[in-house]
Give the backbone structure.
Amino acid sequence: MRMSSINAYDYIVVGAYFLFMLAIGVYFSRISKGGKDFFAGGNMLPWWVSGMSLYMTNFSVWIFTGGAGFAYAVGWFALIYFGIGGIAYWVGSALTAALWRRTRSISPIEYTHTRFNGLTRQLIGWVIALNFTLSAGVQLASTSKLLAPVFGIEIAVVVLVTGIVILTYSFLGGLWGVVVTDTLQGVILLATAAIVVPASLYLVGGFETLADSLPALSFNHVYNGVHYDEHWLVAIFLISSIGFAAGGAQRFYSVKNEKDARKVGWLAGALALTGPLVFGVPPLVAKVLWPDLSEVEFFKPYAESNPQDLVYLGMCMRILPNGLIGVFLAAMMAATMSTLSSVYNLVSSILSRDVYQGIFRPETTDQQLLKVGRALSIVCGLVVTGLAVLFVESEFGIFNLLVAFFTLFNIPVTVPTAFGLIFRRVPKWSASAAITWGLITGAVTRFILGWDIGPQVYLSFAMTFGIFVLSQWFGGLYRTNKSLLASLSLGLAAALAWLFTGSAATELDSFLSGLGVGAGVAMGLSLYGFSKLFSSQTDEENAVLTEFFKKLDTPVDVAKEVFGEGKKQVSTFPLVGGTVVVMGTLMSLIFLTDLTSNEQVILGAIIVMMIVFGAAMWYFGKKSEIRDANQYIQSS
């Protein structure tokens, strides 16, 4: 079965794509005049652009490598996993999208200082920064693993070049540069993937033939030593829903009002529902075409390092003509670029706004915050690049690495971050207690007991959410019945000590068993200490909380709060839409190469989609400009 190899046309496409991303960063460097512009887009982002950016931010080339390898191994089970994201977006945005916009924030954890306390703000900030940085390292490693065999270059070189390009346009353009490149990258990626799906199905005779050729759906799989079942799917849905409620903050508060914030979540969810078809079907076709990858020449050099991670690439090399292979590679890089650029902007916003300004320099001006944010985005990018070099050689596998970070850190941080906007009566120390319990539970169940991901997440959520929502009751118990509280604390310590010895799962050596017992006792006894803190909230602190929730009850006045600051709508998206049309038109030059009739059809379909989407972007961008210009005139 013929598989293409890249040629000069593909190199030209990839090179031009890199240059265009850098040009966007330079263009938007003129717009970011201060910290609010750099981290929140001045609250001027159109909802459809922010929604596309939110969608692009939450997956990377990992879905074409680790995700594709997982689908190749587990079959239909992976399609259910890919489909969870869309519903989770809708659940998460329904919970908090409007509330995030009303916080009037420019950092996703800025509000936690008022809602909880300074320690909580720092704790959440550092855990989020660590989680996102580690995950970004995995995603950059995924990109490098995909590109290195195609270009025949050392993985370290791919990591450095890709990392520097992403870092440069993120450093220059801030959030505006991030979301505009996200939108363009989304168009390229979806247009290419939408062609790969029907073309791959054609290779096996259609969907019915594919279904008949694969094993039936099973909910019991072991992949690279990790067990996946229906409990894992439930855990992913739980983590994703709460994660989007907390982690979508930057895209929710960067639009003009609450209505637009809700639309952001709905659009991201609708786009994510295409996942099972777009990202799941080609690996399943590959399973039918190449049931033994060791027999396929393309995969032989990678037989010892998870060759299934390259099946999506193999399908594209089989289907796409030269020139379009370059477009596909650009689309793969686009996925990681959108994720990493968002991580750099998000982490730098936390470190500059919540750490640097929050602790060391409260008097920092908006212009100074911009300089600090850019410097910290460089630091973040360099750290992520270094981590990618380490992760790319990991025997644990790209898929398992990302899942490990995702399940360990998300629940402890996202529960208090999201539900702090919803539960109004929980005291200020509730978030610190929830984070502490969640991290300890996750670490013990994962690294000491070795539980499956499903039970690990269930217990982590139960402990985190439980102490969070019951914190007010425990505080009242400390004031009214300390002996009962002490009994509950001792009982919990005993129960967790027994659970964490491994008697409920497997036999452990004495050292690990001792660690588990110590962790369980510490958590149980900490209930008494945390309850004392829960009870210590003063009338002055209650008054601050009352004012905070009054702000959440107050709708955003767009004329006064957005355009009233003298801002004008940035005339950008018609330019981007026009650029997409030009890119689609330029692709027609590939017709001058030697193409088969099938390849001509594939190329033509992608060109049409690019031109139609670009024209729509231009039209709606112009329409939005006119409406917002009228709002600006009315507010002046």
